[in-house]
Design brief:
It contains 15 helices and 8 strands. The protein has helices at residues 2-31, 41-45, 48-53, 56-67, 104-116, 147-150, 157-168, 174-182, 201-209, 211-215, 232-248, 262-265, 270-284, 313-324, 344-361, and strands at 73-77, 94-98, 123-128, 191-192, 198-199, 252-257, 289-291, 337-339. The protein has a 6-stranded mixed beta sheet. A two-stranded antiparallel sheet has the order 4-5. It has a domain at 70-141 and 189-361: Rossmann fold. Helix 5 packs parallel to helix 11 (232-248). The longest helix is centred in the N-terminal third of the chain and has 30 residues, at 2-31. With 362 residues, it is an alpha/beta fold.
Amino acid sequence: MREYMLKRFFFTLLCITAGIMSGVMLLNYTLDFYSVFRPDMNRINSNSTLYQYANMNYINIKKYRENHERFDSLLMGSSRVGNINVSQLKDGTYYNLWYLRSIPAKHLRDLKFFLAKEYEIRNVVIGLDNFAYRQNDTMYNNLIVNEYQCRYYPYTVFERIRFFFYYLIMPPDSHLIMTFLSKTGRGFNIYVQPNGVQRGVFLDEAIEAHPKEHEESAVFKSAFRQYNDFRLDETISELQEIKFICDAHNIKLRVFVNPIFMTSYLSDTPEEFDHYMEFKKRLAGITPFYDFSGISSITTRAYYFYDNSHSRAMVGDMILAKMFNSNPDTCPDDFGVYVTAENVDAHIKKQKEEYLQYKEEQ
């Protein structure tokens, strides 16, 4: 009798557990909070709540893989390059392969996979960030995004099984559920075009309607500082391998360093800033690059930024104008320096002097 009761208890417990797990999995699949089960951009673009939480790391690579035959060139980078309008480039048909927290290690992994699949790639443009060597791929949790929004695209069968199972068994979050059911997301009013370019027309309209209020926003008095690692040697090694692969496959590689608003740029301690300059010096030994970071008439004006980390689409146009010499009059002379192994020492010396000067004035 006792043995029977124990078996019945464990069977009942198993059924309850299975029922709860099934309910959780059904809820996560049906609401699809991060748009990994139904990564339809028409659906996501039409709903600001969906866009707010969508895992663009997964979605953007999936979109490129499904349409890679339409493109022969790539812009790779973090969300800071997301609004760069690559359709204006004439030397290839570009896809903007941006995603959150993108770092050289991920560019390398993606590039290797695409070439192994024999995708045609003629040009690669990489936008590097000041956090490129200061974070690893476990950099998830902060006030804006979480690990579910940042999980990277799964390339192998095992990775895919683990990836989707992870989202199916995600613990229920009452706030997230109510946000989706009531559609009370922050309403970014951003959408992604077929070539991967992220557009925020309504954001730009709001800035133009109230430029003074925008420039006085509290966000520009703070700094973007979300680093969790120091891997300078590893990052340089990854960039060297990217350069080697591009040369071996006759791919034209162009590199630039993204601009950030001056409060974020100046938030580095002197030691951190020296590491940043070392990164640029070693990068110049691998490939010439355009440096749009630092103090300039663009990075000192909040008008040119959505927040203290992301520049506006018009700045992306300036970056392309200078890099491709397409419309140089649209880009200020002090915004963007072409850095080589020959001039890198003078360049970082100037940036260090400007950094110290502005730090003293703060």
